[in-house]
Amino acid sequence: MLAFTGLCSAYMFTLVVPIQAELPQLLDAQRSDTAWVVTITLLVAACATPISGRLGDMYGKRRIVLVLIGLLIAGSAVAALSGGIGGLILGRAMQGATTGVIPLGIAIMRDVLPPARLGTAVALMSATMGVGSALGMPISALIVEHLDWHMLFWVAAALGVLALLLVALFVPPSTLRTPGRFDFVGAAGLAAGLVGVLLAVSRGADWGWLSPATLGAGLGGVAVLLLWGWYQLRVAEPLLDLRVAARPAVLYTNLAAIGMGFALFGTSVTLPQMLELPVESEAGLGLSLFAAALVVMPSGIVMMVISPLSGWLERRMGARFMLAFGTGAVAVAYAFLLIWSSEVWHLLVANILVGVGVGFSFAAMPMLIMRSVPSHETGASNGINALFRSLGTSAASATMAAVLAALTVDFQGTPVPTHAAFDTCFWLGAVAALGACILSFFIPKHPHYAEHAAVPDRP
């Protein structure tokens, strides 16, 4: 039931991909304005995820999951009923808040499942971030090809209603609570700082990387986050205990999450474009939108299939080994693309490798976190890990879009990316995945604080 909510949440990120290029015409708006349909979802997801994790620790994880699903349903209805840019952006913002169900679901599993089943369940829940995105693309493409684009949001609302019923009926209420007061100042500071940084990252290509708007948002966001960190170290009941977050196992896992978020979203940006661009452009393979989505989809299926194997491997080899293996597999996938990317089957093989790598690494990260933090911080700490993944995806979206826009050739009066542009993106993805792999070796095998962790360390 929880995994289904994770799938619905992840689907929100690829929901509008099939209509993204057509939004200016559909909404009678400037392209710079319609870009907010995607940007606002990333911003709200990044801000809401760690905050909802903390609220779950304090007031009940199941209760907050139900609230987030309710926002998904309401946001989908708002977007479906909207005929203009304002309503669509508002609805997409509400949809973005539901991303917090994935780290909260992992924390619920830690509370209710026996240790023997925990690794497999966490692997499945973690994989939903990639599975939902990959499976959602052909669904969205099929809807757009045969129905009005508003149906995308009615389908999302229907999925939300189903998820709400399943969680309400089958997920037990949370019994482990953290007493105390919610840090509203800390939540506001974190949100303000993240919005500034993510605005600079996601909109820098459009605004100009050295423009006053980009520099003001980015530097202002960093300044706010530094002030927020100073405040968190001094307040009695912080939103997040940064001393715990600075532990090597937690810190290096979160830094690796940035690289993996970048590497995962990098394929989501580049591969569909390569598959859909005309063959005559010398950089594309000429597939339809639906056919391209079908080529991308197997990575999500692979992530789901290997979830039981991830749990078995974690129990025997440890989450640290799984993270190294997964990040290494994604680096190999990008290396494969740098050598072979001229046929559809080349991209299919690389995408399957990405599915294997993301499946293992995303399953490993929550276990590494929960083996390093106390039980009353599992929701917030997994939320921060999801936040770092979001930072990676936002950086990939902005960076690769800038590269693809900068290296173009004219094709029938329209600028299209060159093969060199895609190769540059593949190099960036390979470096990000390799960096995450290197970071995994800095994670302690047996942290000295593991005896106080939410999940006991492996013997």
From TrEMBL:
Residues 1-447 form the Major facilitator superfamily (MFS) profile domain. It comes from the Bacteria. The chain crosses the membrane at residues 34-52, 64-83, 89-109, 121-143, 149-170, 182-201, 207-228, 249-271, 283-306, 318-339, 345-365, 386-409, 421-443. The lineage of its organism: Bacteria, Bacillati, Actinomycetota, Actinomycetes, Micrococcales. Pfam families: MFS_1 (PF07690). It is a multi-pass membrane protein. Keywords: Membrane, Transmembrane, Transmembrane helix, Transport. The keyword Transmembrane helix applies. Its main location: membrane. It is found in: Cell membrane. This is MFS transporter. InterPro entries: MFS, MFS_dom, MFS_trans_sf.
